[in-house]
Amino acid sequence: MRWQLLSLFLALATPAVAQDQTLIGGTPANPAAWPASVYAKAGGAACSAAVVADQTVLIAAHCVDDQKSITFSVGPNQYAAKCTHSPDYRGDSTADWALCKVTKKVVGVPYESLVTDGGWCAKGKKVRLTGYGCVKEGGGGGNDGVYRIGQSDVTTCPSRNNDTVTKCGAALCFGDSGGPAFVEFADGSRQLFGVNSRGDIKETSYLSSVWTAKAKSFFAGWQATNNQVLCGWPGATGCRGGTNPPPPPPPPPPPKPTLCAAEKVGASASIAALLKCLDP
Fold it and tell me: pLDDT of 1-28, one tens digit each?
């Protein structure tokens, strides 16, 4: 096959390798810079994924069966989430998105923001591929819990389908499926533009873009059903580089002391009464 699905079946996993071996063409990332990227497990498979709202994970549809669950951790906290496929995925492999509703709020990390338009996309544009997958051309190595990143060049932007295609530099490998691909801007910010979907496990990678009409339709319907707002969409909070949740309101001021009896009687109050009022 010219390209292959990238999910890893743990029963067939190869042994972990030394950390200087990387995502094909990439390098190990500083975990503190990518706290919302997670290593998700679904049955016997493992994929990369990203937290994109307080109770939402974005992953590839081919990583998990529709209406089935994934598990993952963020720091010391363990989470589970039930996943819903894009309705277009059954007939369109480029619509490779699933959104997963987490059973409790994911805490302690800023969530990744999604691109909502493709004005940035052009042939030759450098983008950031990421994932927890294998490290060798053709497969092998990696899948050791190390998150890896690397740059690649856009060769094709979505037109007839949902694919953004990249080539040269970093390339996706088994286990990278579902992970986030990012466009980075001059001000140092980044946004998630695609979900790792397929590749030739050598140099060419296919990302299911999150700003196409099919993506937006799926995301909008899912948000309404699940009472979530994805980062990058209006009204989202807790997002990287975006609007944080509002702080709690300040405590109310202490009540003003009421006038005691001696103050109310004014000049006619006796010295003894005033002293009693000040020192009851």
Answer: 334 455 443 333 333 333 333 467 789 9
The torsion angles phi and psi of 233, rounded to 5 degrees, stand at -95, 155
Q: Give the integer Cα–Cα distance in Å for 142 and 123.
A: 30
Contact 233, 116 (CB under 8 A): yes
Q: Say which residue the tokens 């450098």 belong to.
A: 126
Q: How many residues does the chain have?
A: 280
For residue 40, give the amino acid letter. A
Q: What is the pTM of this model?
A: 0.79
Write out 200-237 in H/E/C secondary structure.
CCCCEEEEEECCCHHHHHHHHHHHHHHCCCCCCCCCCC
Task: Using the structure block, give the residue that is written with the tokens 């946004």.
Answer: 191
CA distances from 2 to 106, 140, 202, 205, 211 (A): 38, 18, 11, 11, 25
**Pairwise CA distance, residues 278 & 280, whole Å:** 6
CB burial of 193-217 (b: ≥16 within 10 Å; e: otherwise) equals bbbbbbbbbebbbbbbbbbbebbee
Residue from 162, 120, 164, 129 nearest 147 by CA: 129
List pLDDT tens digits, range 40-69: 999 888 999 999 999 999 999 999 999 999
Would residue 108 be called left, alpha or beta, if left means φ above 0 and alpha means ψ between -120 and 50 degrees? left
Query: CA–CA separation, 48 vs 166, rounded Å?
Result: 18
Name beta bridge partners: 100. Answer: 57, 83
**What's at 135, amino acid-wise?**
V
* Beta bridge mates, 40: 47
Q: Which two three-digit tokens encode residue 176? A: 């990278």
Burial class (CB in 10 A: 0-12, 13-18, 19+), 136: middle
